[in-house]
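Researcher: I need the complex structure. Ligand is nicotinamide-adenine-dinucleotide. Inputs:
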Amino acid sequence: MKILFYDTKSYDKDSFTRELANEPDIEVKFLKADLTKNTAELSHGYDAVCAFVNSDIGKETVEILHQCGVRLILMRCAGFNNVDLPMVEKCGIRILRVPGYSPEAVAEHAMGLALTVNRRLHKSYIKVRENDFSLGSLMGFNFYEKTAGIVGTGKIGAAMVRICHGFGMKVLAYDVYENPSLAGIAEYVSLEELLSKSDLISLHCPLTDHTYHLVNRDTIRKMKDGVILVNTSRGALVKTEDLIEGIRAHKFFGVGLDVYEEETPNVFEDRSDEILEHSVTARLLSFPNVMITSHQGFFTREALSAIARTTLDNVRAFEQNKETANEVKAG
Ligand code: NAD
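Model: Output:
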């Protein structure tokens, strides 16, 4: 089995190389370039490609992969909203993903963002480095006995519920399905009730037609004044223009974003030497109560090893033509 690995970073190479030591018949070539319609042709002669969250696996890319003889797309991530699934199916390509590698990695990062914007840790870090030991503008509020609202209670959302419960918060949850493992620690309510009662709202549902711009002018209006909003899920769950309007109207005590609509050209790139014209990110960063990280929720040692292991298990399932719950299907 020959796999072309796109968008390789040093940590990907390290974690996969460690796992590949036990898989002598799997040959991997690591490429720095990401998978797009312009780089798909490089897959000629490979059985599979391995891609990530921001790869552009639209119709044209899939068509080229198919022409190059690729039979398997390995997503080394949970999300697949960047893939044209009907086209993948039409071309007879199988697509396997890593649905859950370390839910706690993302949930702990979500709580990290919530604590950072609440206690203004991003400001105090800079102040103290400048020998400014004053406390002005750093006052936060206790999470203890406040209400957390968790939207989406799958693997990551459930981990976030448990963390918030551990902080002594009352936890409200909203999902299209109730997660029985959360009985006794979270109360399922309507989205409206969650929005109106929560002091901390954390998004953990996938990006679908139903959840696109779930946070918008209308839903922001329903939130409590002084709420903290955290998004570690997908950028387009939040309509950025409306978020900025809400921040300007002093609706939010803090906003923590690991993902945001404009992230694709930024994610995992060093753009520190560029002048970013018309940047929404720059506008968001201009607010003192906003903290942005660059899609790093998943980025722990444990998660990277689990991603590499599951991806190679997916290769085995493909080779043995086995059914797997990791398969992504259209519709
Ligand atoms: P999951 O499939 O286990 O859980 C998603 C939950 O969302 C499910 O319980 C589902 O019923 C619920 N849901 C679906 N539609 C909904 C709707 N309209 N309203 C409310 N809830 C709805 O997924 P997960 O592993 O918990 O991951 C959640 C999301 O986190 C992923 O979709 C992905 O976008 C994101 N993620 C981010 C990172 C990161 O590094 N920041 C890493 C992994 C995953």
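Model: Summary of the prediction. Residues 78-79, 100, 103, 106, 151-157, 174-177, 204-206, 208, 210-211, 232-234, 258-259, 295, 297-298 surround nicotinamide-adenine-dinucleotide (CB under 6 Å).
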